Amino acid sequence: MYTGKEQFITEQGQAAANVTDFWRWSGSNLLDNTYRGMLAEFLVARALNLDSIARAEWGLYDLLYGDTKIEVKSSAYVQAWEQKELYSPRFDIHVPVSEGKRQSDIYIFSLLNEKERDKVDPLDLNQWDFYIVKTSVIDSTFDMQKSVSLSLIEPIAIKVKFTGIKQAVDMIGAAAV
Fold it and tell me: pLDDT value at position 177?
């Protein structure tokens, strides 16, 4: 993994920028759907002490915690673009046709819950809620549905804050595998 201090070197051997410069340029809008999703994965990885392993793109699941495969999804009321009204949180749960079934043992639905644009701060962990559900419950409740609203997740999930993720995953994960 890069530290951020590594340099981009020109053909004349001079430092043009460092990796932190690139990260700042490319990923500073944490409300953006793509980066909010990666941030949610990072937060879950951090809570489970898995953040020393670099994120892999396009895996069958997002994290491997012991033998427990975890899929992390993200949504928010406030989006990166201008809105006339709050977004109604939805989460992607589609099943890749090539796989035929969901590959994880657990889903963690991560919601950036602040509803006021001028107060939303993805770095404030008090603004995040995490809904943890066994994949078998997702399968039996939603079958091949492609997305699901927060209101349908709430009754079947354990809701925790950041500091409760590990305990909930340990409890659910032991029963999931």
Answer: 47
Residue pair 17/5 in contact (Cβ under 8 Å)? The answer is no
Burial of 44 (0-12, 13-18, 19+ CB in 10 A): buried
- pLDDT tens digits for range 42-81: 999 999 999 887 777 777 899 999 999 999 999 999 988 8
Among candidates 115, 119, 109, 123, which has minimal Cα distance to 29?
A: 123
Burial 77-115 (b: 16+ CB within 10 A, else e): bbbeeeeeeeeebbbebebeeeeeebebbbbbbbbbbbe
How many residues are present in the chain?
177
Q: What is the pTM of this model?
A: 0.87
Beta bridge partners of 107: 71, 133
The residue type of 168 is: A
The beta-strand segments (E) located in 10-66 are 15-18, 63-65
